[in-house]
Amino acid sequence: MKNPFEFTKELLRYTRGELSKEEEKGIEQVLSEVEGMNTLVGELKDKNRIEHEMHVIARFDTERALGKVKNRKQVKRRGILPWIAAASVVVIAGVSAWILLSQEPDVHNLPVAEKFEPGKAVVTLEMASGLKYRLDTLSSVVRNNRVNVAFDNNDRVLKIKEQDSLADGATKEIGYNTINVPYGGTYTVELCDGTKVYLNSGTTLEFPSRFDGKVRSVILKGEAYFDVARNVSKPFVVEVDEMKVKVLGTSFNVKSYVDEPGVYTTLVEGSVAILRDGQPEKKIKPGEQAYYNKGVGTLSIAEVDVNEFTSWKDGLFYFKDIALEEILRIVSRWYDLEVFYMNQGAKSVIYSGKLPMYSSVEDVLRKFEISGDVRFELKGRTLTVFDK
Q1: How far from the centroid of its chain's Cα atoms is residue 157's Cα?
Q2: Same domain, 200 and 257
Q3: Please, are residues 48 and 61 in contact by the beta-carbon 8 Å criterion?
Q4: What is the DSSP string of 189-239?
Q5: What range does the domain containing 348 cover?
Q6: 184 assigned to some structural domain
Q7: Same structural domain for residues 160 and 253?
Q8: 210 and 157 in one domain?
Q9: 111 within a domain of the structure (yes/no)
């Protein structure tokens, strides 16, 4: 069976005349064989409809809506919420394609997926010089004599150690080193100042070999827990999306994935300040979380259970009154899955609990199926969710 979402992308290109003659023939063969496909193509050609849907999506504040759900005294576990109706045109078309292409009605049992070991993804390091290393096979110490530091990789921890002071006349290194942690992995970096950075699945961290300027600056994409070495004279700055997080010495978590609506900065201890261009500095206290909405550009601060946002560092999924859609967004990054919903109501089912991250994906999914509110079909890397 064709992957419905990949097929939908081809359909979109077909409606825009972007396919080769051979590709067009393949699409037209499916259109002629599968009843209802021509109707779907007609919907994809409706530019006004697509523009309207995308406009709704762009303005929608998912996190705010989810907060309203969680604050209700009684949540209907299986109700279809109005805000869930705002779905991507590609997602709608993909689900339609799934229905039209599917020829396998028996979806009651959860099949075993191909073997995938969480936490074993290949992490890579690209030096500022352009040299690249696989950290799962790098066992030797790599020296950067230009700035007198050594990269020591051992037991899934990369330590950058300062060898001695810069020699007179030495040239300052230009560019950052980059460590990339793909889906299904974690890694720890100990920077040259002693700061420890725990990197979650699907994360990229850019950092200098040593901090020679007035600030210690790194660039983050994804999620990381920072345990910053205190240095009053040289603040530590995390650049993430359209903002910066500045600290002197503290422990905090920052999450900003491409598929997340905002940037979450959760403070465990110490003090951090949120910096944005043209906006006053905002400070948060331990036990608080700053949430920056990337679509709207607003910043809000609220008290949270910090364990919910930092337990991943200790190998645990911690969900506290969280909608299944948000839970599976987290789980899919860890197990490298594509998630499709056959029923919109499944997205709003609320769960709480703790699960070990290093369990098999089948074990994790069965925990949710026990509730009786949802069921899953897992084929390879594709997870389909059904509302019971």
Answers
A1: 22
A2: yes
A3: no
A4: EE-TTS-EEEE-TTEEEEE-SS--SSSEEEEEEEEEEEEPPP-TTS-EEEE
A5: 317-387
A6: yes
A7: yes
A8: yes
A9: no
Domain end, chosen from 43, 68, 101, is at: 101
For residues 134 and 256, state if they share a domain.
yes
Rg (CA), the chain: 24
Contact status, residue 192 vs residue 209, Cβ threshold 8 Å: yes
Residues 144, 230 within the same domain: yes
Tell me the C-alpha distance between 337 and 113, whole Å. 11
> Cα-flanking dihedrals φ and ψ of residue 102, to 5°?
-65, 130
Show the tokens assigned to 143. 């020296």
321 three-state secondary structure: strand
Q: Please indicate, yes or no, whether residues 268 and 157 belong to a single structural domain of this protein.
A: yes
Could you give the number of structural domains in the chain? 3
Residue 157 inside a domain? The answer is: yes
Cα 208 to chain centroid distance, Å, stands at 24
Indicate the length of the chain as a whole number: 388
pTM: 0.69
The reply to whether 118 falls in a domain is no
Identify the sign of the CA torsion 230, 235, 241, 243: positive
Query: What are the φ/ψ torsions at residue 8 (nearest 5 degrees)?
Result: -65, -40
Strand 157-162, strand 149-154: pairing: antiparallel
Q: Are residues 158 and 60 in the same domain?
A: no
Tokens of 241: 């999306």
Whether residues 169 and 36 fall in one domain: no
Pair of tokens at residue 267: 């403070």
pLDDT (tens, 9 = 90+) of the chain, 388 residues, equals 445 556 666 666 666 565 677 777 777 777 777 656 666 666 555 555 554 444 444 444 444 444 444 444 344 333 223 223 333 444 444 444 443 434 333 333 444 444 556 666 889 999 888 889 998 888 778 877 667 788 998 888 999 988 765 555 455 666 899 999 999 889 999 999 999 999 999 999 999 998 988 999 999 999 999 999 999 899 999 999 989 999 988 999 999 999 888 999 999 999 999 999 888 899 999 999 999 998 888 999 999 999 999 999 999 999 999 999 999 999 999 998 999 999 888 999 999 999 998 888 998 999 888 877 899 999 988 999 998 7
